[in-house]
Amino acid sequence: MAVELVVQNYYFFFLFVQVFLVVSISSGITTVIPKITSSPQSIPSILAGNLPKAANYFFSYLLLQALSVSAGALVQVMGLIGWFVLAPILDNTARQKWARQINLPQVQWGTFFPVYTNLGAIGLIYSVISPLILIFNIITFGLFWIVYRYNTLYVTKFRFDTGGLLFPKAINQLFTGLYVMELCLIGLFFLVQNADAEGKAVGTPCKGQAIVMIVVSVFTVIFQVLLNHSFAPLFRYLPITLEDDAVIRDEEFARAQEKRWNLVEGEQEGDDINDVLEAKERRSEEEDQRAGDIELKHIENRKQRNMLDPRNLSSIVPEALTNVIPKSPSWADRSRQRRTNDWANESKNNLAALRSSKQHHHNHPSRKPTDVEAQRSPAAPIGEALFSGLSDEIEDLTPEERDKLVQRAFQHEALRAKRPVIWIPRDDLGVSDDEIYRTQRFSKHIWISNEYTGLDGKARVVYRRSPPDFSEVDLIEL
Fold first, then answer.
1. Residues near 452 by beta carbon (within 8 Å), at least 6 away in sequence
2. Who contacts 59 (Cβ-Cβ below 8 Å, separation ≥6)?
3. Taking a C-beta distance cutoff of 8 angstroms, is the pair 419, 469 a contact?
4. Among 284, 289, 288, which residue's Cα sits nearest to residue 264?
5. For 255-296, how does the pLDDT look when each residue is reduced to its tens digit (9 = 90+)?
6. Which residues on adjacent β-strands are paired with residue 435?
């Protein structure tokens, strides 16, 4: 994170000098530096005299950036080259092919923010000198918003969290555009002069406006200092007043999750989630108690029936055995009775299993809600094989899975690390099976497997599932 912040500072300085200052002054940097160092007070005059000339260039520059960058971000040229050109040449193992299939491109925020911060600064500078640039700025950032919103949701992956510190730094860098705009306006107001009857320049009629811009520049500096002073503590620590809002958001999230997983029944609008859960727990305890009472009644009834069983009459009336127990039936009767009893027992078991299944399905629905963000195409069976049934967001997890994930999230990265598996393809000759056998005999600490991968008819490695050491928890960034 610290590296990204440092890169953002230096890269913005480089872009602002090379893209804006050098182009605006219409000369090389070696010519500009001597002029500025010899007479620093001439900076407003130099900028004021050259900025209006470069306006047409920045109109074209903004449109070119809007169309080329947005088109490149949608097409993903490097991704296409890597997928169709480099992958068949470089990816030979099942792990390499699987990694290229599942890994998404990442964004380098240190070099991402300064490009668009520089475009925003250019728009601020020319907003007064040449207001037409605002239209080009709207077109540019409108296209960027559409493209990067789509890429953020479906294309890119964010592995490192910067804690939102890049945004306030970009806001501070935008003040550079404000300061340059104010300096240019000061220079322009001082350059305006009246002409006498002979056409000679006399006086500065816009001196008052220039003084006003100087005062505005001072107020801009004061505002930036106060802004940073007010928000600087929040860059590292959150205010304690946000705790109440966090509790409210947690309750709303819990309510939404409970409704989503159908764990709360009979809840009315405005009910407290804790009260609803407590009532549900009380109902569950009452149902368990009623079930226990019913079971005790069944046991007592079974004991009474057993007392009336002819086989138990010897304990009650021993002399009645000869009158009650008939003679031994033949093998045909035993066979017929055995078939009847087996059929009856099987029917009872099936009926009980069906009732139990319906009751379990009613109380604990096993089917997860449909993920509206899932993009599955029938023409891409590999995506269905790799990601079918996997949850890639914390909202898609059950409460039990979410609790386990939270416990795992606060562990050290070394404690969360899993033992990697050596993933080799299965072959018809049994070479991989023999290699697995020999490796496991050599050491029990080496995990080697040939599951879900093999060789096709042309001896190319193919796979149909993720490797054995892959877990859906890896899809959710902790």
1. 463, 464, 465, 466, 467, 468
2. 132, 133, 136
3. yes
4. 284
5. 776 666 665 445 554 555 566 666 766 776 777 677 666 656
6. none
| Mean pLDDT across 13-24 | 87
Q: Which two tokens stand for residue 8?
A: 């953002």
Residue 329 carries which DSSP code? Answer: P
Residues 6+ apart with CB under 8 A from 394: 402, 405, 476
HEC assignment per residue over 254-296: HHHHHHHCCCCCCCCCCCCHHHHHHHHHHHHHHHHHHHHHHHH
Full-model pTM:
0.64
Query: Tens of pLDDT along 172-204?
Result: 999 999 999 998 888 888 877 776 666 666 667
Cβ proximity of 86 and 159 under 8 Å: no
What does the alpha-carbon distance between residue 167 and residue 122 come to, in Å, rounded to a whole number?
A: 18
Q: Is 386 exposed, middle or buried (0-12, 13-18, 19+ CB in 10 A)?
A: middle
d(CA 76, CA 105): 10
Q: Which residue has the higher pLDDT, 24 or 100?
A: 100
- Can you give 361-389 as a three-state secondary structure string? HHHCCCCCCCCCCCCCCCCCHHHHHHHCC
pLDDT of residue 338: 43
Task: Judge contact between 129 and 52, C-beta under 8 A.
Answer: yes
Span 403-430, pLDDT tens digits: 777 777 777 777 877 888 999 999 888 8
Query: Do residues 144 and 70 make contact, with C-beta atoms less than 8 angstroms apart?
Result: yes
For 317, the 3-state DSSP assignment is: coil
Long-range contacts of 88-95 (CB under 8 A, 24+ apart): 92/461, 93/423, 93/461, 94/423, 94/424, 94/425, 94/453, 94/461, 94/462, 94/463, 94/467, 95/423, 95/467
Sequence-separated (6 or more) residues with CB below 8 Å from residue 63: 136, 139, 140
Q: Which of 161, 220, 155 lies closest to 186, judged by CA?
A: 220
> Which residue bears the tokens 């108690």?
289
- Residue with the bigger pLDDT between 301 and 16: it is 16
What is the residue type of 414?
A
Which CA distances in Å does 250 have to 97, 245, 254?
Answer: 40, 9, 6
Are 472 and 392 a contacting pair, CB within 8 Å? yes
